[in-house]
Amino acid sequence: xxxxxxxxxxxxxxxxxxxxxxxxxxxxxxxxxxxxxxxxxxxxxxxxxxxxxxxxxxxxxxxxxxxxxxxxxxxxxxxxxxxxxxxxxxxxxxxxxxxxxxxxxxxxxxxxxxxxxxxxxxxxxxxxxxxxxxxxxxxxxxxxxxxxxxxxxxxxxxxxxxxxxxxxxxxxxxxxxxxxxxxxxxxxxxxxxxxxxxxxxxxxxxxxxxxxxxxxxxxxxxxxxxxxxxxxxxxxxxxxxxxxxxxxxxxxxxxxxxxxxxxxxxxxxxxxxxxxxxxxxxxxxxxxxxxxxxxxxxxxxxxxxxxxxxxxxxxxxxxxxxxxxxxxxxxxxxxxxxxxxxxxxxxxxxxxxxxxxxxxxxxxxxxxxxxxxxxxxxxxxxxxxxxxxxxxxxxxxxxxxxxxxxxxxxxxxxxxxxxxxxxxxxxxxxxxxxxxxxxxxxxxxxxxxxxxxxxxxxxxxxxxxxxxxxxxxxxxxxxxxxxxxxxxxxxxxxxxxxxxxxxxxxxxxxxxxxxxxxxxxxxxxxxxxxxxxxxxxxxxxx
Amino acid sequence: xxxxxxxxxxxxxxxxxxxxxxxxxxxxxxxxxxxxxxxxxxxxxxxxxxxxxxxxxxxxxxxxxxxxxxxxxxxxxxxxxxxxxxxxxxxxxxxxxxxxxxxxxxxxxxxxxxxxxxxxxxxxxxxxxxxxxxxxxxxxxxxxxxxxxxxxxxxxxxxxxxxxxxxxxxxxxxxxxxxxxxxxxxxxxxxxxxxxxxxxxxxxxxxxxxxxxxxxxxxxxxxxxxxxxxxxxxxxxxxxxxxxxxxxxxxxxxxxxxxxxxxxxxxxxxxxxxxxxxxxxxxxxxxxxxxxxxxxxxxxxxxxxxxxxxxxxxxxxxxxxxxxxxxxxxxxxxxxxxxxxxxxxxxxxxxxxxxxxxxxxxxxxxxxxxxxxxxxxxxxxxxxxxxxxxxxxxxxxxxxxxxxxxxxxxxxxxxxxxxxxxxxxxxxxxxxxxxxxxxxxxxxxxxxxxxxxxxxxxxxxxxxxxxxxxxxxxxxxxxxxxxxxxxxxxxxxxxxxxxxxxxxxxxxxxxxxxxxxxxxxxxxxxxxxxxxxxxxxxxxxxxxxxxxxxxxxxxxxxxxxxxxxxxxxxxxxxxxxxxxxxxxxxxxxxxxxxxxxxxxxxxxxxxxxxxxxxxxxxxxxxxxxxxxxxxxxxxxxxxxxxxxxxxxxxxxxxxxxxxxxxxxxxxxxxxxxxxxxxx
Amino acid sequence: xxxxxxxxxxxxxxxxxxxxxxxxxxxxxxxxxxxxxxxxxxxxxxxxxxxxxxxxxxxxxxxxxxxxxxxxxxxxxxxxxxxxxxxxxxxxxxxxxxxxxxxxxxxxxxxxxxxxxxxxxxxxx
Lengths: 542, 679, 125
What we know:
The structure holds 3 protein chains of 3 kinds. Chain A is mainly alpha-helical. Chain A is built from 20 helices and 4 strands. Chain B is mostly helical. Chain B has helices at about 1-10, 20-25, 30-45, 55-75, 105-130, 135-155, 160-175, 185-215, 220-230, 230-250, 260-265, 270-280, 285-290, 295-300, 305-320, 330-350, 355-380, 390-395, 395-410, 415-430, 435-460, 475-490, 505-510, 530-550, 555-560, 565-570, 575-580, 580-650, 655-679; strands at about 85-90, 95-105. A two-stranded antiparallel sheet of chain B has the order 1-2. In chain B, helix 6 (about 135-155) runs antiparallel to helix 7 (about 160-175) and helix 17 (about 355-380) runs antiparallel to helix 20. Helices cover about 80% and strands about 0% of the residues of chain C. Chain C has helices at about 1-10, 15-45, 50-75, 80-110. In chain C, helix 2 packs antiparallel against helix 3 (about 50-75) and helix 3 packs antiparallel against helix 4. Chain C is elongated, with a radius of gyration of 20 Å. Chains A and B meet through helix 7, helix 12, helix 14, helix 17 and helix 18 of A and strand 1, strand 2, helix 7, helix 8 and helix 9 of B.
């Protein structure tokens, strides 16, 4: 399996796009062949990523060492290389990405939003897959940027073409927009706005590194090494570069107050689109913080950390409160993402190994849980043709299995201990109690308390949603409607998610054992020493 | 664990036995896992079985009871030293380790025994009670889920597993309170319970974090040791951590002012109320306090204990009074439960580790018995309301006698179980120097006897007032009643001060088998005076209650006379003279009870509803005002500006080429002019 | 040819200078004519409404350019005769342009029964 060492990641990343090209040659009418091809290639990509896991050395090693590394000259003129590799932080996210993609293809087997056209939709999905997988393995800033941006286009078209066609009144505009167009453009512009700054930041790093021993470089490991040596110490430079990258990543996460594209995009997107958006796209931002911002500009990260923490906590409370005002089920779930990603960002902002571990498991859990919630919301609006919670109710009586899964997922989403969502929230609160030495305890401990209050609000809106959607007597409107309970494609797509949610909930070791070495050594390298030393057991000695 | 043993021995604490429970101890995990398997199995196959999954649930608990009994007996006879089995589920770096496992010490083993024994009897009862009801498989599935979560909770060797079990029982409680979810009122009751608990859980989670991070471990063993060593790091956070944990305990154990969810929780089926909202789940708070007892005993005596005792005292008397005015038989029992939880909490908070847990132990049996008997009555008359009952002693003899036994035990009548445990609490309060609270507890004993007499009289004496044909319940329901009546009578005997039964160690001794000794007070002999005072209070309660309610009244008005005190006695002056003393009692206790009830309904519940409403309103404000108009408005505004600029500028595009060309020529001319004349 | 011209230059330096002076004077006159022609073209382009006439105006402008090219070539006498080459190039392109242009005009006229540019505002916003 020598060849897999070099080709494993490349296969994972590019198999989907090969599939997309093949799909281009298949007749539009031949839906079965289209779906089979798409499924084959996503499964192949998933298997490739599983192969990567199998061959992965969980022993870890120092930070900034990557496995399955490939480093070939790509654009010599700007010293940009095709440099890919995985470590414990990116591996879970990579597998999550390939895995959810398979489920998304299975789900879309018989769920096509208008105007159907499976061929185009599948091609977009596969391109999206390449972009997402690529972002998680890219170790070159240019490569990273390109994958990061590739993701935009398919999603833009998914929302813009297959999205919600209802009209939407936008304050400030006299005319009424189609929701899908409004959402798609908003999504695109927001992200592009952020990534333009991000690119500037990347370029600044490139030129600044010119005087280093590496020469000008876009290479993330090299920049990380420079960063850990304090190379980018100039405060003004660091401030602006961090700020520029912050904008790019914060929009994607999304952090308050740059989150407003998210509810619109999620609500308008077709089911599979919102699933992928929630499950994976949002993680690109927080992953960027962990992979790029923190290690390359560690000193500046210290300065920004309280600010990020404050925004994260505002996001938690704010997102939850906004959920309480929603009447549209999908929009409620979308806003819940703002809150959940707030916990992820709070964990990252602590700059400790506990916090960053919390962030990674939080990302994975949120991907599984919110992905599943969007699947459910999509399937329900397929059947009811409405997402208005006021018109729903008694769903569990009409569709017991669907209702049961919805209840389960809502419980997982509100962070019930024993399910995956708990660990991210709990651990980021743990981390916030004791952030990196030198960070303001006041800010972080207040954040911890507010975050804990946020969990109460989360429980509040989730239960309220269940009450309005699942429980009570079904409205008379649905009498005589034949509402099919979950079909086999839905079950095939959902059951793996449910199993994973439970497994990670009871045995988070599967994630933590992958991440912890990489995270600990990251923190050690970037912020010096074992930061949890201050909380080492006082009893252990006795 | 051996070093812990040595350490504990050096501390001079009592350490009894050194067993590990052998086979039973090593395999005790079966108890924690099997109900969860039952949960899945019932969901999967329940519908196809004869009893709709009930048989699975019962079988699993029966197997569990085998283990629990074995451990219980081993613990009583040989003594099982704290043995905990754990396996790692997560490790962050080298500092934070999360583990799951099961504890084998006096406290956990008592709870295993309690949960499984009462649980089994209630499950059997439920087979009969739920027959023909809707969604029976779901009932047994959720009930099994509860049993599993409760066992995970009481078996937890660390705070994190405790939180898992804690939220798990909360979830099961939510499911079962809202079991009849077709009616949104029940759903709301479930939501209220879950949310009230969730608010309190903030305390639990933050407390766990503060203590866990400070100690670098979430293990109870570590906490216990650090506490008895007066660890400095722990001392710094003990007050905050301890009070936060107490907040969590207040929520689950329905202490004032978090008690509001418990009466509403009666919306669930009666077996649920019996097992969860009386016998086991609600005692989790007391259990938590007992589990972390060294923390309180060593750090919080001066600064926080009076507050905690006060909250317990308010709960035990204040909420007990409410039982006097409730007409719903289950509400009476619910208020009574809150009041008894107040006793336990007061005791544990005051330093009476054994006293509180002993009451927890005995209370579980007779309160479950009372609920099940009440369920039997409800089953017969198809109403929760005591105004629809009366005279049932003839038609339902078994139910009647068991209910009376339960009531007597609850009231603390010698020599039933309740007497011994209540006496132990009084003795502890006396010993710890809380004399005022002790008198409150004695008053509480009076009130308890008072309202239980009312309940018995209105339900079983006088004439029947309902519509249905009352009949004794089937044997599958009366069997568990008898099964619970026996321990309600006998289990007080295990902890009589000064008496050691041959071959077994008394309750205090084996309950105290922990990593560190609990060092609490257990009297060497009975304090006769205190016992007599307590008994007199209880008997007085029965007598006065019987004088008021013992005789059946013809009219609704007469039966509710107590409910409108100041007014009714005045109107019926004759009656006032006849029973002057009783009127006095009515006139004094009544208004207080009414006042408390009013406060409860309008102030406390009002606050809760207001908080809920305000939060929702705030949500609306944040979303509609801040988010949609503010934050999103900024972005929409930006794009609107771009849009309007664009639409003005595009008017230049007329589509007439000649106009463009004119502009172009004009531009050239200007440029030429500039080049010629300027440069 | 290149070698012959360069030889001439080197043989008669003085004569060459004189000749250049003479051509400057003549070139000025040519430029005036070309400018006039160009202006007429621009005028026609801007004010005429008939597409055919506009095309003719464009031709005028092109020819004005051609005159300039020839005049400058005469003055500079470049070794590769660039001006002449370019003017031939322009003439060729102009021929092609007129060919395509007239074809378009014909189509427009067929479709819209008019060759008036004011009516052709499909490009409007």
